[in-house]
Design brief:
It is built from 2 helices and 4 strands, in the order H-H-E-E-E-E. By secondary structure, it is of the alpha+beta class.
Length: about 90
Amino acid sequence: MRSRYSAYVLGLEDYLLATWHPDTRPAALDLDVPPRPQWLGLAVKAHVPLDASHATVEFVARYKRNGRAFKLHETSRFEQVDGRWLYVGGDIRE
């Protein structure tokens, strides 16, 4: 989760796509569509292993866009494939 957050901060689309599960991976991401967010921090709230190859991570990522502060609160689903944890999807929380 932390590496994917860092990739968003740095605009590393290739890394984000490479760590996305192929069943749910989009063809591309529009990370450079203005205005780009100013990422302010990541707080991992919970990590729940579901079994040997599935887990969830609840996090809050804070950012600013056009001078306004926002937060992204999500519970993400990950699956381990060939020894690598891949992002499957997530549910936005309020």
